[in-house]
Amino acid sequence: MSFQSSPLAVRNMSHLGRDARSTPSDPQDSSPPSKDQSLILSLKRRIEALEDENERLKGSKNPKPKSIKSLGCPIRKVAALFSSINSLAQEYERCCDPDSQAEDDELSDVDTAQLNEVEHEEYEQRLELKQSRDRDYESFGLMCEYVPYIKKKIYSRDVNHTELQADYTPLESGANAVCSEDIHNGAAELADWLNQRKPQPLIDWHSRLGRGFIHDLTDRLLCPIDFDWDDFVIRTEICAVGRRSVVKDSTAPFFLSFLYHNEAGDVQNPLKGWLQGPLLVKMIVFLFKSASSVGKEIVDNEIINQSSDEENVGPLLPSPGASAHSGKRRKSTKKTVSQLWNITYVSPRMIAYAATLLHLILSDGPAWGADDSFPYESFYNAIVDFFEDVETGSEDEVWNKRLLAWWTRTVYTSDDANAPLSMHPLKDFKNTIRNH
Fold first, then answer.
1. C-alpha to C-alpha distance for 71 and 341, rounded to whole angstroms
2. Is residue 46 part of a domain?
3. Neighbours of 170 (CB within 10 A)
4. 90 plus 211 within the same structural domain
5. In which element (H, E) is residue 366 found?
6. Cα torsion for 83, 89, 92, 93, to the nearest 10°?
7. Could you tell me the pTM of the whole model?
8. Do 341 and 364 fall into the same domain?
9. Cβ atoms of residues 216 and 199 within 8 Å
10. What is the rounded distance in angstroms from the CA atom of residue 77 to the CA atom of residue 396?
């Protein structure tokens, strides 16, 4: 406890000292000090000790400067999971060029009805490139928001390109380290959540081997909704051909069962309950709050579609893992990611990050970055574009705001949910789905 002398305390101290001096005593008097004198001396020693302790505590509370590596921690989770810091900075520089802006604006003036097949293909490629650039530019803004160090460096006139590149390496190393840690810890947490459903065999906590399309529970969760998993013939064929063929043959490769509110999607209405899955909710709570908070979230009724004002009032899926393990955790005294980074609402990139990692740890694929059996980057970008690639004021934007509001109500308390939900126009999510 820090001790700080108030003016009143200092004044009282001076009175005590004056009273002690006003008591006459004979230097030759060897009699023991009076009771009042003993108290005064004791108080003086105690105050000196407290002042020394106060100075020591003040020195120990000086925060150590954060390393450049640690400053990069938020990048993958809230800004860009796949793009490099250098590519984001380059896109910012490109957007500052008036000629580049004029080139992008030309696309909006193209009359697609007048294009032949070759010209239309070229137009689609340019449109896709613009979509990617717009996404990177938004990522750059988010990166600067959560890592002000980068913004300060890039905007500084005294820093050259070589110095910037030297900073990008440790920043990216810190960002990637957080992602790897989330995958490792998330894989064990997922096993705990799924094992509450008592699957046979139980999910291994320490390894992802045995998951994916070789386990009855994880294979159902990873199944696209256009395949009838309850059909034994289809199920057997899916397990035989593997993930790569499933993605190739599916008409809805990114509409996966684990993303849905009741872990079952409707192919006739694929947005009903999409991105509202209970495992996805748990993953975001785990990644951005704490493991001890998992199981305490209150999942609202699912949102049906843009054209309906009614919400599904059917029974909710029981929260797996909410009863057994979550109650045994010791409450953490450390700040959560949301507290450290001042996050009070769920953003599109938080959802995309959690969904991408959740797919990986449900599968038995190779390590992060080495698994090419599923298009993870396209999956992540598709979810981001679903939210951000909308026209301002459109029904899609209204729908997306409703969905983000649902997420914030589910993950954060009402006191945390006061931040505005901004939407940014980019391109069309359907284009991403069609290209994959």
1. 11
2. yes
3. 15
4. no
5. none
6. -140
7. 0.74
8. yes
9. yes
10. 25
